[in-house]
Amino acid sequence: MSVTLKDIARAAGVNASTASRCLSGFQGVNEGTRQRVIQVAAEMKYRPNRVARGLVTGRSHTIALLISDIRNPFFAELARGAEDAANAAGSDLILCNSDFDAGKQMKYLRSLSEKRVDGILMNSVASLRREQLKQLADLHLPVVLLNKPEIRTEFSTVSSDNFEGGRLAGAHLAQLGHRKIAHITGPRHHGNLTERLRGFLAALKSARLPAPLVLHGQNSFSGGYDLAHIFFAKHPEITAIFAGNDAMAFGVGRAAAELNLQFPRDMSLIGFDDVDLAQVVSPPLTSIHAPKYEIGQVAVETLLKIVERGGAGPPEQRILGVKLVVRKSCGPPRTK
Amino acid sequence: MSVTLKDIARAAGVNASTASRCLSGFQGVNEGTRQRVIQVAAEMKYRPNRVARGLVTGRSHTIALLISDIRNPFFAELARGAEDAANAAGSDLILCNSDFDAGKQMKYLRSLSEKRVDGILMNSVASLRREQLKQLADLHLPVVLLNKPEIRTEFSTVSSDNFEGGRLAGAHLAQLGHRKIAHITGPRHHGNLTERLRGFLAALKSARLPAPLVLHGQNSFSGGYDLAHIFFAKHPEITAIFAGNDAMAFGVGRAAAELNLQFPRDMSLIGFDDVDLAQVVSPPLTSIHAPKYEIGQVAVETLLKIVERGGAGPPEQRILGVKLVVRKSCGPPRTK
DNA sequence: CTGAAAGCGCTAACAG
DNA sequence: CTGTTAGCGCTTTCAG
Predict the structure, then answer these.
(1) What is the CATH T-level fold of the domain B5-48, as seen in this structure?
(2) What phi-psi label fits residue A220: left (phi over 0), alpha (psi between -120 and 50 degrees) or beta?
(3) Which one of B37, B120, B230, B239 has the fewest CB atoms closer than 10 angstroms to its CB?
């Protein structure tokens, strides 16, 4: 088939192991033979077989990113950060979409572990039950979580400061003078979203405002759209909305447009994540900026560090800062 | 380390090769021993080492997707289709972002081939020079291109019907009564975009309209934004714009908003790709729907087929249909 | 139907 | 500094 190490060793008149030394590491090798071997390898278009190497070294230099859906711009951005960091460290990134389906997730996990990936980045642990969490631990794979699960785990995590983000959103709305506020968010027990809600509640409380109306649904465009429609009808008193993420906010925007409601004239809207599109829609969406790219980046760095030290060591919790990005979708409450 | 085939063979009282047969294929094996081996494997939490298997079978059951940037929603959607298809076929997908950088691309290609991926899906071949194309062929890796390069190649391709899409856009604008039309697009020699342009020109010609104003720039949001600004200033006579892709169209939209121009009152705008956001922006963008998900899906199916037959066989060209999606950004030309 | 043997392509002691 | 010897964990003839 293709040319192997042995072939080039023979051609260069050395033993396979010497050839290996010349091409891989920088061990004590005679500079002359080294040059020769390298040249021969180039001439013969030698392509080292990494899987053979992996078999003996036990490292595949491949990590996996297991997320719910890459089409979610949040994850696309995160994935890019992860891929860049992986690439910089000489690793490849396997992409897996779980759709939050625990079964699919476990299937991926098993398959990835059989492929001996060096480690796994995953977000969708939220849906895992205790027993599955145990199975995950049984895989003995370095894992970094991309969100803080509600259940306490022994995994390292990298996430944005969701609590602070929620707080910022609440404070902003409060400062603009809103009192009747709604928060639409995803399913309960979604780690990130619950934190956002908690921060939000804290902010309203410290501003001595009444508790907001909280609605749970799908944390997606259509989820936001649906929730908006039902509550526009039922709660006309509301003057401001904090959406659990930008996708939901866009859904609200769409529903509002259908009702001829305008932001910020008729209502204020603030999102979370600060996805690219937030600046493109009109009016540009005020949002809490989450460091998506950096989460991906830091997560693989953390993961690779764990891999280096053989999976040992205490889990590390990294929380990356968020900030409020004021655009055009929020204003003072409508007068009537 | 972890439990190996040999371990479970010993525990089940058979030879490793028999154990292998029981667990992998469906060779002629005694049903009794088979059950036993499988059970022992389960009890001992045996996780077959796929890289060892790969070393002997020569298949890694891993393919790579090499695109310019996963943050581009077009590719995110395509990637999802690819991942779903790969997963369904029992393969994993490695994600690589090249940023259209030919050097980065070749580096990935080399690295992927050393990892013995089964094949590669790539879009960014546009920027490859002849010599690099040859290097790519030298890798002897099954490749499926996600766009039709201008240079004739021996690779299989899967792409949307760009010519027809351009034609549909042109016909739509012509039918609405526009005569002074502009087309803003990406760099010359970008396979997909040139096809769109060609189809567009053909449509205008067959409607006996004058040739449009064609502007080249970056095929991105900011590219569209920049081009729009320069031509709003220089060509006030234009009443309709066909953007080479939705991202550029959004850029145009943003520039227009800054000038207080409204679609479709002051100008008509049509995009290409029909990205998710097209329905979210306001007004919702009329666009040519490209089957992004399907391209990814069909591409891996094609790739896997090539892999099956050992890389032999003639290249296959698949062109997937597009359609016009009329929304709210186009109307008749302004009267004055 | 199952065992023995050989080897995929590479690295890693261990001598020399 | 370099060759020899063993495997990594699995599949695959080839006998039996």
Answers:
(1) 434 Repressor (Amino-terminal Domain) (1.10.260)
(2) beta
(3) B230
Set of chain A residues whose Cβ sits within 8 Å of the Cβ of B83: 70, 95-97
Residue A18, nucleotide of least CA–C1' distance: D2
CA A275 to chain centre: 13
Q: What is the DSSP string of B149-160?
A: -SS--SSEEEEE
The chain-wide mean pLDDT, for chain B, equals: 91
Q: Residue A137: what pLDDT?
A: 84
| Contact indicator for A298, A270 with CB cutoff of 8 Å | no
Q: Is the domain A62-158+292-319 a CATH 3.40.190.10 member?
A: no
Q: Which residues contact A240 (CB under 8 A, 6 or more apart)?
A: A173, A176, A178, A180, A181, A182, A267, A268, A269, A270, A330, A333
- Architecture in CATH of B162-290: 3-Layer(aba) Sandwich (3.40)
Q: What is the pTM of this model?
A: 0.92
Give the best residue of B61, B66, B104, B280 to mutate against chain A (max A CB count within 10 A).
B280
d(CA A104, CA A96): 10
So what's the pLDDT on residue A126? 62
Contact across the interface for B83 and A76, Cβ inside 8 Å: no
With beta carbons under 8 A apart, name residues in chain A contacting B48.
114
B29: Cβ under 7 Å from strand C?
yes
CA of A29 to C1' of C9 (A): 21
Q: Where are the domains of chain A?
A: 5-48, 62-158+292-319, 162-290
CA distance A67 to chain B (A): 11
Cα–Cα distance, A314 to A4 (Å, whole number): 41
Q: Would residue A99 be called left, alpha or beta, if left means φ above 0 and alpha means ψ between -120 and 50 degrees?
A: left
Q: What is the mean pLDDT of residues A280-294?
A: 93
Domain A5-48 shares a fold with domain A162-290:
no
Within 7 A of a protein CB, which nucleotides of strand D? Answer: 1-13
